[in-house]
Write a structure and sequence with these properties.
The chain contains one helix and two strands, in the order E-E-H. It has one helix at residues 31-34, and strands at 16-18, 24-26.
């Protein structure tokens, strides 16, 4: 498994945040949010 990261990111359920344009978003996981770089 050379080159794979062992990093873990915790995303707490129920967390929300307000974006730059005033929309409220719920926390979640995406490729961009967790830094994924390949599919399995």
């Amino acid at each position: 498994m050379s080159g794979l990261s062992d990093a873990v990111r915790v995303i707490e359920p129920g967390k929300t945040y307000v974006g730059k344009q005033g929309f409220t978003y719920g926390a979640g996981a995406s490729k961009e949010a967790v830094g994924a770089n390949r599919s399995v």
